[in-house]
């Protein structure tokens, strides 16, 4: 067994207490062996955490990672117009190599800003899997299926591709890749095809991930056509299981919140995307009060416009107060839990906590910075003052991916150059800016 010791720092424990301790990791099994307050650990390799805080790697539980190529491509529009007029025409120009370049760029950004696991809904998924494999991060991936605007054959093929991808890549990259059936949303996938695919997913034990109740433009037609709330429809289709997770949950009523809690279906809150597209404010404190598992997601880089999960943490704590009209809503501890164990729960991975037996998905945040001084309460800083650029080391599955801000598994300048070239060519083909 080879071991990694993370020494000299403080450690964020699962109960959110912060103690002086070293962390010993089994680098082969990718697991935390010990959190040692006596500071007597020694490992085959050592990461210096002095002046820093060892904490769980953040989980970005909803993104479209290759959309980094469209960062800043189209801003300042509502969801529907933004997707139809700008994003979908540009994405129609994406080939596999574009998705790979965008995925590499997004993963590089996430590793540098302390995210160790993410959920990704996109297309050309084999490219995303390769990017995950080579970079060393962890992800639950899926093919986003859309049937609107397609003929019967094309619609069925897209939904089948989503099932096929989920079957094929489950367990890839030494188990760091898991999968889900990913119907895009309740309004963009045909009902009969949706029911059939979800039934198959249930039989085969495949989780389901989808966009839900993001905007009123999406909720209102369902309510008027079906005379039921979107999540009642989703429940009837069978996509609110305990391994399932939906993104957004902005416009949910009390009965839908109850349903999510009863079914143990996680909601991925995406505050920056919801603000930028003016989608609305998710009732996060009400969901937490009802016992819903809430995770955090950046959504794609084109509606954020970065993949820094620490930004998301801060936005969640801020927007949660505004939504509840209560400054005590979504306190720092709740936001930190959403970004760590909430995300791990949504993705179904035993991470998000620094304790023996958990996955060794860890980051070290530098606290020796002007904007983090003094540190009366480190958890407050994590929610309100830390940014992704404060991350010193990133470890995933027991392997050091970034040491002293140097990413070891990717060639940073090459990734940036390739992404710039690919993004420019996509924009040219799409006739954009
Ligand atoms: N197979 C589909 C692709 C779906 S991938 C998932 C899609 O979600 C889109 N997307 C990104 N952000 C959001 C959002 O906030 N709400 C809904 N869709 C989004 C993204 O641009 C991407 O097209 C097709 O052939 O069109
Ligand atoms: Zn999305």
From TrEMBL:
**Which residues belong to any copy of the Amidohydrolase-related domain?**
53-400
Named from the GO MF annotations, one term is: 5'-methylthioadenosine deaminase activity
Top-rank taxon: Archaea
Per UniProt, the cofactor note for this protein states: Binds 1 zinc ion per subunit.
- Binding-site list for substrate: 91, 184, 214, 299
Reactions listed under catalytic activity: S-adenosyl-L-homocysteine + H2O + H(+) = S-inosyl-L-homocysteine + NH4(+); S-methyl-5'-thioadenosine + H2O + H(+) = S-methyl-5'-thioinosine + NH4(+)
Residues engaged in binding Zn(2+): 62, 64, 211, 299
Q: Which cofactor does it need?
A: Zn(2+)
Give the enzyme's EC designation.
3.5.4.28, 3.5.4.31
| A Pfam family the protein falls into | Amidohydro_1
The record's listing under InterPro entries reads: Amidohydro-rel, Deaminase_MtaD/DadD, Metal-dep_hydrolase_composite, Metal_Hydrolase, MTA/SAH_deaminase
Keywords associated with the record: Hydrolase, Metal-binding, Zinc
User: What does the UniProt function comment say about this protein?
Assistant: Catalyzes the deamination of 5-methylthioadenosine and S-adenosyl-L-homocysteine into 5-methylthioinosine and S-inosyl-L-homocysteine, respectively. Is also able to deaminate adenosine.
Q: Name the PANTHER family for this protein.
A: AMIDOHYDROLASE-RELATED DOMAIN-CONTAINING PROTEIN, AMINOHYDROLASE SSNA-RELATED
Q: What HAMAP family does the entry give?
A: MTA_SAH_deamin (MF_01281)
Family to which the UniProt record says this protein belongs: Belongs to the metallo-dependent hydrolases superfamily. MTA/SAH deaminase family.
The name this protein goes by in its record: 5-methylthioadenosine/S-adenosylhomocysteine deaminase
Naturally occurring in which organism (per UniProt) = Halobium salinum
